[in-house]
Amino acid sequence: MLTGLQPLTEQNMPFPTQTVREIALHQPTAIPIFEHLGIDYCCGGNTPIAEACAVAGLDLSAVLVALDFSAGLPALPAPDWQVASLELLCAHIIVKHHDFARRELPRLTELASSVLAHHGETHPELAAIHATLTQLDFHLSEHFAKEESVLFPYIVSLERSITDPGADPVSCFGFLPDPVAVLSCDHEHTGVLLHQLRELSHNFTPPLEACPTYRSFYEGLHSLVRDFYQNMHLENNILFPRAMRMESATAFATA
Ligand SMILES: [Fe+2]
Ligand SMILES: [Fe+2]
């Protein structure tokens, strides 16, 4: 059985009872496969792969073969976020994912308005896509503010306090499990909105007669959704658990 943070090897391939989250954590090359198949590896990642396949109507053995194959592919070079500093991870999340969403959301909302104005009559789902995107923009601007002005600074100060015992972490919320529960709840709501965008756009597939703007809109939407799942994966599955373990160990050491 796969335990702890043991990496996957040829002898240690995914098996049906492993959760989607475990596979995504130990085998980053599985993430594009989950994205392609529409399997949630973030908020819904605690589901065994067999169950996730059954829910999605996918053939489990074919998915396991694809995952086995992807294990042999080189992963893109990136820091090992299981051991890199949390300060670096927070900065990476802001620069790579939050800033990307901040740039893309206004651009995509404008494209959505334009596509809706020209094709809304023949494609009524565009009105719902526009509304969902507007809701996502509003929800994420609040969510990013909570993370960037409250949670991440606390995590950075917590980590610094380990090497500099004179620098006590300052929290305005008590202990981490409380804000993490709130932010995880935000992520679940985000996951629902991303799922709606996927469903409404027929998995980001433009109609045959779609004009270049329509196609570019769906491509951009797909990139945004893909990127945000990676953001939530880094936070739900790595940053939050690591920070909470660090906080418990620090609180225990100073108790
Ligand atoms: Fe975030
Ligand atoms: Fe987040």
Description:
- The protein is an all-alpha fold.
- It starts with 19 loop residues before the first helix and ends with a helix.
- The N terminus is likely disordered.
- α6 runs antiparallel to α7 and α7 runs antiparallel to α8.
- Helix content is 68%, strand content 0%.
- It is built from eight helices and no strands.
- The longest helix has 43 residues.
- The chain is globular.
- The structure holds fe (ii) ion (FE2) (2 copies).
- One fe (ii) ion (FE2) binds next to α5 and α8.
Using only C-alpha atoms, the radius of gyration works out to 20 Å
Beta-strand proportion: under 5%
Ligand species: fe (ii) ion
Please give the alpha-carbon distance between the first and last residues: 36 Å
Secondary structure tally: strands? 0
Major sheet description? none
- Described by the principal axes of the CA atoms, the overall outline is globular
The sequence of SSEs as H and E is HHHHHHHH
- The count of helical stretches stands at 8
Question: What is the residue-mean pLDDT, rounded to a whole number?
Answer: 87
Proportion of residues in helical segments: 55-70%
Q: Which secondary-structure class do the elements indicate?
A: mainly alpha
Report low-confidence residues grouped into runs of 5 or more: 1-8
